[in-house]
Amino acid sequence: MDIHGTRAVVTGAAVGTGRAIATRLAAEGASVVLADVDDEAGREAAAAIGAAARYEHVDVRDDQALTTLLADCRPSILVNNAGGGAVLRPCFPEADADRWTASLELNLRAPMLATQLVLEPMRQAGGGAVVNVGSTAGTGLGPHSSPEYSAAKAGLIRFTATLAPLRESHRVRVNCVVPDWVATERGVTEREALPAADRGPELVPLEALTDSVVRLIADDDLAGRVIRLDRGRPPELLCE
What we know:
Elements: E1 7-11, H1 16-27, E2 31-36, H2 39-49, E3 53-57, H3 63-73, E4 77-80, H4 97-124, E5 128-133, H5 147-162, H6 166-169, E6 172-179, H7 185-192, H8 206-218, E7 226-229, E8 236-237
Parallel strand pairs: 1-2, 1-4, 2-3, 4-5, 5-6, 6-7
Antiparallel strand pairs: 7-8
Helix pairs in contact: 1-8, 3-4, 4-5
């Protein structure tokens, strides 16, 4: 897919990884809608990107708001980046059901619904691309401090892989980028606050993340695929 001249929606785009992705897509020639609930940061991010970007207040957990956004924008590119909650405490099993259910809704149900909503409009328009933003918290078999978050991200990865046939049925490719700790402003601050012995490898560069997103959008041969970004290692396109 040629990104230039397309319409893109990036959720959770006011700050951090979402803002970086939106900025990169605009640089590639797309017109970009930044969807978020942080109005001040979202408007500032859109203004910084320029005329190719605009901000929309959308809580992706609100079905009607999400439906309206995607119906109005009719994007040919959707990046399901909104997520988080791994640092919130308490987590499962101490957290009550409403709290851990909210994490599942944000990190798994919302991107599933958003993907479902764009499929038919993208098919009618000749095709499109969806990129889900996962996390290495959703990989492996080890423990994690936020079970609900890691379970949701694991589900997002598996959800992506099951949708490979959409390339043929809808001309829509759904892929996933799975980063470790990313060098956002917040990430760098949090890492530097740790004792030196606990910091581990350098964080995943934002450029590595945005490069991977662009690759997953642009390469028409990639469908139902996952790019893993580990700290201190080159990107890895996972095989079946």
